[in-house]
Amino acid sequence: MKVGAQARIGPTEMKEQLTVSNLRDAAMVSKAWPFEEARKVLKRYPAPKANGPVIFETGYGPSGLPHIGTFNEVLRTTMVRRAFETLTDMPTQLIAFSDDMDGLRKVPDNVPNQAMLAEHLGKPLSRIPDPFEKFESFAHHNNAMLREFLDRFGFDYDFVSSTTRYEGGHFDEALKNVLRCNQAILDIMLPTLRKERAATYSPILPISEKSGIVLQVPVEVVDAEAGLVRFEDEGEMVTQSVLGGKAKLQWKVDWAMRWVALGVDYEMYGKDLTDSGIQSGKIAQVLGGRKPEGLIYEMFLDEKGEKISKSKGNGLSLEQWLSYGTQESLAFYAYREPKSAKQLHMGVIPRAVDEYFQFRGNYAGQAVEQQLGNPVHHIHNGQVPADVPPVSFGLLLNLVGVMGEHATAPQVWAYLTNYVPDASAATHPELASLINLALAYNRDFIAPTLKRRKPEGVEVAALQRLDAELAGLAAESSAEDIQNIVYEIGKTGGFENLRDWFKALYETLLGSSAGPRMGSFIALYGVDNSRKLIAEALA
Fold this sequence. Notes:
Blueprint: H1 14-17, H2 23-29, H3 33-44, E1 54-60, H4 68-87, E2 92-98, H5 114-118, H6 138-152, E3 158-161, H7 162-167, H8 172-180, H9 182-189, H10 195-200, E4 204-206, E5 220-223, E6 228-233, E7 236-241, E8 247-249, H11 251-262, E9 264-266, E10 269-270, H12 274-286, E11 296-297, E12 300-301, H13 318-324, H14 327-335, E13 342-343, H15 349-363, H16 368-373, H17 375-379, H18 393-403, H19 409-416, H20 429-446, H21 458-471, H22 479-492, H23 498-510, H24 518-525, H25 527-538
Parallel strand pairs: 1-2, 1-9, 2-3, 10-11, 12-13
Antiparallel strand pairs: 4-8, 5-6, 6-7
């Protein structure tokens, strides 16, 4: 990740970091999903690919701005690409393909000049004025946003524009091939369509020379070798070339043509495109190519377990995640179990941050086989930072939660000196970033929900005993010493189980139903401050 040179996703050399001689052998049997996917590509080429690099592709529809799904797909594909490079010396390339010849179907909700866009419905995105009035077309604007987005995270890719390929004639031979195979493609597609849709379906979508609109009309192939077709346009039968950007393909046919024309070997896609992938795979075979290898990943769900929808606005944006969590934590969340549906909402961020650091802390001491299965290996392409922050994100959230919604970073650093003597932004820059994220998360999500309750029954005596123990605590006592005291009070304080005691501490002192190891929290917050919390609860 582009948080530092070590964290960059790019063409780094994993083998320089992992000098174990059997790295490739371990990768060949690793059960980590990027290696499993990479082995599928390797099986495709038992001998080195003869006509250029092994091509990995991700597709992008530029009718909207890049989002968290774009990030996840490019990230996951990059992980498979790097895993493949561990297995073989074959050169690779990642293509970020923009389908910017697609016709604008509806006006997006989140752009200006919507009335202007409405006048251009049906036209290729690359031939519609930019509603932001910054670039030569709407597609050029969103393509620029995509490249800026990918560059921001340090991805290594080659951008390819559908418009450039169509208008530059790079797809002309492929288009002629589609015309030659027109009936075979219809035989694949028509049985999958509703009767009304089948009546007007054509693999080729001519672009009207009268209106500039991408037409959805029946098309007769006049001369495949010359690229000529006949169709009705505004009541008139016209014969027109499909070459040089005068037509595009239906998207399933376009997908297949692109696989064949660009020589794509690997592309993953969401579960919602499963059937489309099947049809495009059959078309690719008709066109003389083969479907690329790929992983079908599950879609994200919202907090209620419902499918995320742009129109509902029930998803979580990339900007929202990065306002409260680190880039690495998002990459960690994207890595885990891509074939399982996962909820994506604000509540998953703190755990993702801490689990990322837990896996990172374990990495250095693991055998190479375990390292290859560790998510951080794939997040950092084998160049995993050795250290971890001295305080967990969860503990920071508990600290700022007690401090209140108006807590500041300098105040947090003052408390941290109780726990980390040399604590400062200069000595712990990663911790400084976590503090700012914790303050933001607490302000927006935790502080409004915190409500302390009064202690009841045996809880009163237990808190009084804890206060007395803390009062007599030796100055050099560690967080583990304090944890042992808390644990002993819970065992002998009349509680049915320890869980009830810890829950009482969280609810009476922190105002939450869950919390940290109390020994660590008290050491961080300070014994005197913790005793004040107890006094407030008992009062």
